[in-house]
Specification:
Helices cover 43% and strands 16% of the residues. It is α+β, with helices and mostly antiparallel strands and 387 residues long. The strands form 5 sheets. The protein has a 4-stranded antiparallel beta sheet. A 3-stranded antiparallel beta sheet has the order 1-3-2, with helices on both faces. This is Winged helix DNA-binding domain-containing protein.
Amino acid sequence: MHHISDEQRRIRLGRRHLLAPSLRTASPVSVADAVVALHATDAATVFLSTCARLSEAGVVPVEQALYGDVSLVRQLSMRNTLFVVSRELAPCVDASNARTVAAKERRTFLKHLADDGNGLDERWLAGVEQQTLAALADRGTATGTELSAAVAALRTKITVFPGKKAEGVQGVASRVIRILAAEGRIRRDRLRGSWTSSQFRWAASEPWPSEDPAQARAELARRWLRSYGPATEADLKWWTGWGLGAVREAMTAVGATEVRLGDGAAGWVLPEDMEPEPAPEPWAALLPALDPSAMGWADRGFHLPAGHREALFDRSGNIGPTVWWNGRIVGGWAQRADGEPVWRLLSDVGREASAAIEAEASRFSQWVGQARVTPRFRTPLERELTT
């Protein structure tokens, strides 16, 4: 069986994820497509991940793509997580993942309404949604608070999990807005504050055109294998949140070819993707929490030493800011209150790597300017570096 070494996997990562300086791009859309999808749970991550791969890093081109020409869009999709993808890929992500997520969100909320016992049902929810859409159409864009002020029903409160330990009272506004966004009927527009904020304004949108779910899963698997292959079935299952049957169906549809990985496990690549690639120039990167290059696989052993996990992950399995050298995670970094980036190396990397990391830290400082970034998911090393 054809063998692809861990070193070759790291070379592919540096090249295909646009992390080597000579491979950076001028286009935020090209960045998103290179990694298939940018994690967007933390709004700042989108900017940090994109600028790490731009030839001319800066906030303006990312904002233009997100809010100007809307060539990048946010979708609640894989693993019920918020991602940013290119507008071209969005219908595929919608059919393969987001529709299922949206349907589950609606079912869950309707159950909460029924459990509340006050007669709130699907018909009531449809009316609230229409009122919310009308209020948004009147305003063009609005925050959740502004929509709640305009639509009295959004100020309704319900009891969730009645009679159970988790019982509590919740407002419905955030759930109604979340469902409308998951179904593509509204979208997240400009942030209320700077690019580091996670408070959005909302704008009207149209649901994505219908695509066949099986064909969409195959296309998403093809793009993922191109960016992350060779990889295992378990990697694709974890990344997408699909069942194993759907993963294997998609792999078969794209003609995925089995190869042997460095640890002896079976991996998969696209049939035309067997040949080795030349190494790019040596490269260093400071990547943010939840960056796709760290979150693309369930098994990250080929680029993440096992001894580094405790310092770099939170208790829920979210990876924090990482320092990279030639395809390996070699440490973690943070930004202090005064804006200075600071890092700690967990591997001995030598003088060349240290100089390259210094240069990346300087590049980060230049484009970030006065902004201050605190990850939503704090890890032990990130917390320690900021004290």
